[in-house]
């Protein structure tokens, strides 16, 4: 099942500008890089797809809604689990049912191409930690080891590029329940065990193996960019990586960075400033008003109408 096909809208701005300046990174280090393709690509498609697509209830934050200490909608999620699953069911038990049996990368790419979109971004890893590629840093918790038994990132990326579309990857810096992350958090982020063992190795792996045109970072909001080692990674990305001349990034690299520093600004979800901006920006929005991913309990009224979608597109791109 295709989960949560989301459209990006990005407004043409007064100048072509790639301005990553996260803390120690000077803008001149990356100003030389071309973003012509991004300047011309006004519409893209964002796909939220992962283990959360199996229960497909509430949103892609299902696991957090079920087990998170500070979660909202916990009552509804627990009631859903009690009604549909055995009492000792775990989130990991959803993995074998994430079969992707109807996934056909070529068919998806055809749909994307025919829509008029110019780029596609797939959730390589959401906050649950399950990777849609056979990551060496997510042992037994990836799409080749369990579930689809496929490299979803690799297959979709190849099909999308065959249609002459740009391919980007969403990656969550943090993971809700990873023991190393929780330990770093208890240490007030004075330790970086999770970043060194998981987050950064994954990002370097994604870039070196799949060579994405966009790195769409998320899950940054609990810690500063110094914890995430964002400056080190971005400096490598724009100066030494295999995509240094073509890649663009968003602005979610630390809790004080969002809406300040990025190849393009996304600020908060569904960002639409309403006036012409001097910086590149993106309106990252959903079709479902309540969720980025498919949810089985959604009603027709929960989806934006064609008229509202077109209005948003015109307001953003004009």
From TrEMBL:
<dbReference type="GO" id="GO:0006004">
    <property type="term" value="P:fucose metabolic process"/>
</dbReference>
<dbReference type="InterPro" id="IPR016286">
    <property type="entry name" value="FUC_metazoa-typ"/>
</dbReference>
<comment type="function">
    <text>Alpha-L-fucosidase is responsible for hydrolyzing the alpha-1,6-linked fucose joined to the reducing-end N-acetylglucosamine of the carbohydrate moieties of glycoproteins.</text>
</comment>
<dbReference type="GO" id="GO:0005764">
    <property type="term" value="C:lysosome"/>
</dbReference>
<dbReference type="InterPro" id="IPR017853">
    <property type="entry name" value="GH"/>
</dbReference>
<feature type="domain" description="Glycoside hydrolase family 29 N-terminal">
    <location>
        <begin position="33"/>
        <end position="317"/>
    </location>
</feature>
<dbReference type="GO" id="GO:0004560">
    <property type="term" value="F:alpha-L-fucosidase activity"/>
</dbReference>
<protein>
    <recommendedName>
        <fullName>alpha-L-fucosidase</fullName>
        <ecNumber>3.2.1.51</ecNumber>
    </recommendedName>
</protein>
<dbReference type="InterPro" id="IPR018526">
    <property type="entry name" value="Glyco_hydro_29_CS"/>
</dbReference>
<keyword id="KW-0732">Signal</keyword>
<keyword id="KW-0378">Hydrolase</keyword>
<keyword id="KW-0325">Glycoprotein</keyword>
<dbReference type="InterPro" id="IPR057739">
    <property type="entry name" value="Glyco_hydro_29_N"/>
</dbReference>
<keyword id="KW-0326">Glycosidase</keyword>
<dbReference type="InterPro" id="IPR000933">
    <property type="entry name" value="Glyco_hydro_29"/>
</dbReference>
<dbReference type="GO" id="GO:0016139">
    <property type="term" value="P:glycoside catabolic process"/>
</dbReference>
<comment type="similarity">
    <text>Belongs to the glycosyl hydrolase 29 family.</text>
</comment>
<dbReference type="Pfam" id="PF01120">
    <property type="entry name" value="Alpha_L_fucos"/>
</dbReference>
<feature type="site" description="May be important for catalysis">
    <location>
        <position position="284"/>
    </location>
</feature>
């Amino acid at each position: 099942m295709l989960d949560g096909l989301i459209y990006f809208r990005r407004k043409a701005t007064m100048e072509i500008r790639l301005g990553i300046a996260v803390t120690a990174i000077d803008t001149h280090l990356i100003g030389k890089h071309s973003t012509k393709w991004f300047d011309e690509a006004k519409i893209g498609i964002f796909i939220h797809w992962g283990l959360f697509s199996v229960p497909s209830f509430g949103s892609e934050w299902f696991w957090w809604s079920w087990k998170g200490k500070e979660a909202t909608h916990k009552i509804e999620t627990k009631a859903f689990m009690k009604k549909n699953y055995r009492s000792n069911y775990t989130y990991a038990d959803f993995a074998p049912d994430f079969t992707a049996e109807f996934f056909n990368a070529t068919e998806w790419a055809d749909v994307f191409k025919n829509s008029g979109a110019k780029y596609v971004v797939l959730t390589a890893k959401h906050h649950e930690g399950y990777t849609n590629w056979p990551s060496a840093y997510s042992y037994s918790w990836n799409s080749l080891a369990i579930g689809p038994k496929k490299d979803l990132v690799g297959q979709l990326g190849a099909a999308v590029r065959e249609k002459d579309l740009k391919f980007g990857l969403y990656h969550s810096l943090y993971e809700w329940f990873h023991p190393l992350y929780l330990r770093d958090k208890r240490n007030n982020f004075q330790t970086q065990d999770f970043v060194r063992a998981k987050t950064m190795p994954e990002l370097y792996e994604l870039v070196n193996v799949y060579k994405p045109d966009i790195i769409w970072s998320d899950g940054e909001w609990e810690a500063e960019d110094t914890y995430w080692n964002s400056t080190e990674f971005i400096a490598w990305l724009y100066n030494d990586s295999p995509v240094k001349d073509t890649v663009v990034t968003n602005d979610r690299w630390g809790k004080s960075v969002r809406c300040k520093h990025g190849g393009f600004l996304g600020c908060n979800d569904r960002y639409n400033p309403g006036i012409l901006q001097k910086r590149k920006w993106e309106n990252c929005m959903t079709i479902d008003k309540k969720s980025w991913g498919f949810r089985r309990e959604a009603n027709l009224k929960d989806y934006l109408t064609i008229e509202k979608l077109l209005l948003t597109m015109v307001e953003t791109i004009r």
